[in-house]
What we know:
Layout: H1 6-12, H2 17-41, H3 47-55, E1 62-69, H4 73-76, E2 81-88, E3 94-102, E4 110-125, E5 131-138, E6 143-155
Antiparallel strand pairs: 1-2, 1-4, 2-3, 3-6, 4-5, 5-6
Amino acid sequence: MKYFTPDLLERYGSLDDRVADAAHDEWEQTCTRYQERLxxxxxxxxxxxxxxxxxxxxxxxxxxxxxxxxxxxxxxxxKPQYFIExxxxxxxxxxxxxxxxxxxxxxxxxxxxxxxxxxxVGAVDLNAPPVxxxxxxxxxxxxxxxxxxxxxxxxxxxxxxxx
Length: 163
């Protein structure tokens, strides 16, 4: 994570009010800087990734699992795939599968039982084809970084309609 670092998160949650207040101010500035950076990338990001960012706020989404495979290769290309299956929103929640067309090595499988805390989107290379990074911090302390060129997402209930 470049913006929402573990150090900042730790200070933000400090029991010392002076430390927490200073971190809160830093957090607000960091959020502004990150939002400006993300806005500058939006024109390069895959359209479905922008739609995903507009539709979902994933803080505290339950992680069902993260895994590799090729079940949706026809949806986002023929390169290696990586999926993250989430439970989003208040109970009963909605199952959503994020599908990345990965560039380079596929991330290791991720077991569930944790929550999505924060994520950051970045550009690895904006030359054709552009490569992006999606870095995610989970509540179990695992930081996952996915480098991708293509992206899609589906609501789990619609998977039976989309082979």
